[in-house]
TrEMBL record, chains A, B:
Name by which UniProt lists this protein: Substrate-binding domain-containing protein
Pfam families reported in the protein's UniProt record: Peripla_BP_4
Keyword DNA repair among UniProt keywords: no
Homology family: Belongs to the bacterial solute-binding protein 2 family.
Location(s), subcellular: Cell envelope
Transmembrane spans: 6-24
Domain Periplasmic binding protein: 48-295
Gene Ontology terms: cellular component: cell envelope
InterPro entries: Peripla_BP_I, SBP_2_dom
Molecular function as annotated in GO: carbohydrate binding
Amino acid sequence: MKKWTWLYLLLIGAYTIYALNFFYSKGSAGQRVDEIGLSGSLEEKYVMVTFQSGIDYWKSVLKGFEDAAELLNVSVEYRGSAQYDVREQMTVLEQVIAKKPAGIALTVMNPKALTPSIDKAVDAGIPVVLFDSGAPLSKAYSLLATDNYSAGVTAARTMASLIGERGDVGVVTLPNQLNHQERTNGFKDTISSEFPNMRLVAVKDGKGDRIVSRDAATKIMKQFPSVKGIFNTDAVGGVGVADAVRLEQKQSEVKVIGFDTDKVTLDMVREGAISATLAQGAWNMGYWSLQFLFHLHHGLISPDSGQTADASPLPVNVDTGITVVTKDNVANYYLK
Amino acid sequence: MKKWTWLYLLLIGAYTIYALNFFYSKGSAGQRVDEIGLSGSLEEKYVMVTFQSGIDYWKSVLKGFEDAAELLNVSVEYRGSAQYDVREQMTVLEQVIAKKPAGIALTVMNPKALTPSIDKAVDAGIPVVLFDSGAPLSKAYSLLATDNYSAGVTAARTMASLIGERGDVGVVTLPNQLNHQERTNGFKDTISSEFPNMRLVAVKDGKGDRIVSRDAATKIMKQFPSVKGIFNTDAVGGVGVADAVRLEQKQSEVKVIGFDTDKVTLDMVREGAISATLAQGAWNMGYWSLQFLFHLHHGLISPDSGQTADASPLPVNVDTGITVVTKDNVANYYLK
């Protein structure tokens, strides 16, 4: 009889554990949000889609996307065109849409080419948010990106503090691209409104190329020998400008501000060839893209916006901000 | 012996339930985020602080704040100055800071007066985000608000579709307040860049007052009898403009666009005296303010931004968007 008693106890105990375990785990494994806290299901897959999918910059965005997914207990996938090729990106996006994921975070290489696919996804009930570069006329719910004008403002203030708020400065940029025009305008406007003893003497085309940007910077220094600083609005060109300053042996006279945090730029910041570079809020773009998609998928959105054509169920524009990277904090910006 | 067996079974079963219950509930009641999903503790209190705390507009913001708190399993408190009185708001804010809450979401009546208190809170380790109106030079982490220029763009496009993209239009506004200047500029720029057959003929001061705005609108209609539409950039004035159109018996000739969704405006939209009004993303301001504060309190922020002076641990600016409210969807906007 005693043997049987223990057996009963064991069986009933095991069953109780099994039953409670099932009961408690149901909340977080179900399709809907957990009773307590925000949590999804691992079967919920959110896809991040880029172009030139191998570049470093996207890795920081993807890290934010993955960090949010881990906290919310959902799955992610990373896709993108290998090349800077809009037809390839369209093909990838169409393949992703066909799988009906829980949501898509997309960076747009070309708004005109990709808007039809974005709208098709939204019409099919797949939430889409855009990051880094947008498609203003598409049905995507939100754009999470750098406010480029503000980035230019920050560059101007940083330059001012580097050169003691006094002297001539130049810009090397891509004058035909909207985001670079905005960076240049923010720089220009801030110099003229906040720093009466500074003057912007030249804006030159560096074509986003290291050699072309180097030559543009050299021309600025030859034409304006008094120049105290050059702001380059893109990553690759910034390295070229630093090359030029080195070649002219003007490292102590001309300060260089670059953009983004690719490895070559960071190395030059560490060595002092570039005085400062501007880090975009890449992690935040990825993190809040996933949060927004999760909220759309679960219907956790503004209750007022359900029935209108111009509805804003989510914030429509998110400026993820800029951080100034100098020798002091450059170590934080190398990819781990 | 049989009786004892059942007693044993009962006791062991009860203990197992107790133990498992304790084990599972620990995650969500602890100070840190739950193992699965985002969840806080009810002891964590987040405070929303306004001025003129009784007005309807804040109720929608508070609803978003509360909805987020419920999902994240944390507590909220609502505080504010009863009057439009910056000293009273400062006193309230100081009282809130003294209680060391988990975070503060604040709308700023006067940036200059409130910035020292905001900075004091942040320096004391209390996260602060701002909503609706900001304090650009303060240490607050983020501003969640309407992009007023974009709101003006939306108003212009709405007006164009109301009057068939053709005819003279006017604006009644508060020309000395920055947010109203931005709304007017967005309206003006969009008319001139997108609608060649429309013309902005008058911009008048309504002082945010129903009578003054009524008189301003009457003057516009007398001076420009061909006027087809008037955009009023604030809530109270919009009602006055609609009064003027009624008094002049021009309801079928002059379209009125108002701002915000207080009850009088909504009633006029329902009756057709106001053709459209612009709803701000108040719920989103509240909802994402709480989310941001929760992320700051729990350290769930951009890992790159920890050690820099200009750090952006969170998105710095969030445009919560605008929704166009017309007869078709006005029913959604009455406070429940």
